[in-house]
Amino acid sequence: MTRKYFGTDGIRGAANAAPITADIVLRVAQAAGAQFTRGAHRHQAVIGKDTRLSGYMLEPALTAGFTSVGMDVILLGPVPTPAVGMLTRSLRADLGVMISASHNPFQDNGIKLFGPDGYKLSDDVEQAIEARLNGDVERDLALAGELGRARRLDDALGRCIEFVKGAFPRRLRLEGLKIVVDCANGAAYKVAPAVLYELGAEVIPMGVNPDGFNINRNCGATSPSTMQACVVEHGADLGIALDGDADRVILADEQGNLVDGDQVMALIAEAWLESGRLAKPGVVATVMSNLGLERYLKSLGLGLERAPVGDRYVLEHMRRHGFNIGGEQSGHIILVDYATTGDGLIAALQVLAVLVSGNRLASEALQVFKPFPQLLRNVRCAATALDDSEVRSTIAAAEAELGDGGRLVIRPSGTEPVVRVMAEGEDLDRVTQVVETIVASIEATSEGAAPD
Q1: Residue 363 annotated as catalytic
Q2: Structural domains for the chain
Q3: Which of 32, 55, 243, 376 could form a disulfide with 49 if both were Cys (CB 3.0 to 4.6 A apart)?
């Protein structure tokens, strides 16, 4: 069935335009509530949000939808996305919702749905909810005496702080460390500084004054330059940049150098291997993760299994095959021993545990492997350009050119008419030549295509 509402990470779009309107979101809540009404117990839905202005519109719409089908609602207020998964499970709720568009600007918003196990919904469940939306949702409305109630969980932040702190070894403290944390004026603006402070660090908070409009604006994981400068200015030991819903993290060492998700995964995998905590001898990443990560893990006797781009697909592979470390180069780090989704703050704490226990500088510990030169180009064209015989021939020649010393990934974007061409290898000049040759071939094919 063609999906009208759900994308790769819930439902997302411009706020107050379909599908992110109050009436559509209300109907989604009714359909999802009916889908998860099972048994005779009082059913509950948990709702969290980030700091976007449109959250004030979507939170009551979701509340109205759930209560109208007889489901009670627990309102968390602004909390990180991972906290919604955790509290859905902890509160024995039937369903969880996070109102967020993650790293997008304030004009966008979205809803991410979690099942009673705290994990995001599968494709099959999302399709079942869409089927209900396409039908008559009014048939599931509760009688007047069976409507749900809504209440606010007053200690949601405290529960979240304690949960995150539990991911840091009890024998360790952060005393003596100065840490810059950029909360992107988003969902973690209270939680993240509190966690680091309570663990003993001197905290320099940034992006902690949300006004409904400034989430992710020139701050956070997608714009870390200010955080990098702040680390150097204050002589900090580490910089942590979260995104709007705190499921992604980008780090900076004490010199202000950025550290991506590949290096973070490598460091955590090595530490967990030494402590016997790896569930399987390997890590799950995506097709975009650097070949240097793969080679380094191999030197440790570990494998790298690649999933399609998207933290959802990484998590699905992890759960299916029993891995407990996975993530993306972009900073989604999934540690299922602690969280049911990517959790930027918990990933940062694992890095800090390595620094503290070994008395190491971030610049030394986080340069785990030397990345292979990697080049990515986006070509604006239809995905059908990849079906052209000349393009296929060019790609085959490029793969032969790179050989065992490189890697080529070519894929259509899932959100725009773009083909992404990525190559990496030991020689930057060769990588550049390969990418430029493929891009030229795709562009020539697109220019010669007949107009619609």
Answers
A1: no
A2: 11-154 (3.40.120.10), 156-370 (3.40.120.10), 374-448 (3.30.310.50)
A3: 55
